[in-house]
Amino acid sequence: MRIIATTLFICLMFISGTAHAVRIKDLAGFEGVRDNQLIGYGLVVGLNGSGDSDQTRIQTQSVVNMLERMGISTSINDIKVKNVAAVMVTANLPPFAKQGNRLDVLVSSIGDAKSIAGGTLLMAPLKGADNQVYAVAQGSVLTNSFAFGGQGATAQKNHPTAGRVPNGALVERELPNTLSGRTTLNLNLFVADFTTASRIAAAINDKFKSSVASCSDPGSVSLRIPEGYSDRTVEFVAALERLEVKPDMPAKVVLNERTGTIVLGENVRISTVAITHGTLSLVIKETPLVSQPSPLSKTGDTKVVPRTDLKVEEENRRLMVLQEGASIGDVVRALNLLGVTPRDLISILQAIKAAGALQGELSII
Prior knowledge:
The chain is of the alpha+beta class. It has 6 helices and 26 strands.
């Protein structure tokens, strides 16, 4: 049933007609409008003896520093805690985030803590690449895991030394607005392609009835903000990103031999080639027989008589000829007539590429 389902899925990919148009906002993004990574150091407290051990001095020194800032004087030699873990806190700051917005943070242990499940992250400042604090994280850590055990056995689910704090960070500093006061914008394609970039520029110029867009390279489109939108950049971007363009796809076949997954591009073409596929099955079964004297006999020895069953099966498959210019849909239908499985199809496509008959890129992952 798995083979049938996979084959049907591949066929349905090519039964449909031409590719539909896609919005520009799904094909490209504006230069400067992106996430920024944040990182910080913090402590997770409230652990039930599953924190860092005494051999890790990081969390102990951090606890001493924290208590001193709160007006409590103590020594590092006087503190021995197992319910504290030193962690690194990371988050992504989205563009145009405002003060007071909340972010999800990822908490990961950097010591030898066994688990941070059920702990509480204390206030941890999150800094950007410029060493400025942009957010502060604090809250309960959720790991969706557990780790228990004794001297003889242990039980663990998922990864207990890393977790998340949903909406655990508050934005304290805003990023500068990268769109205000600009007369030009750059639209960067997620996948660089000459044809797609040209189609995007043509669609934008047709929409605004002027030479607003121009292509400088296959990975970007330069935009000039029209006079009517000089002080309405957001409205210009909103009108632009709703435009639909049919992206161009390279002729590419992606194979995953480990899972048997095959992804076939619609532009892949096959030159004239003949294909046959068959398998040879050889089964050897050893069944030793024991021969021994009859009961109460005076002479005779027990002997082991070897017995070998040999069975050879070879499937009879027809020779299939694919004409030049056949689409990948024709290839799939023809190979289905040969009764090949997805893993057989991987070997066949590799052989077609080796013969020089596959007009496209073959990528094996």
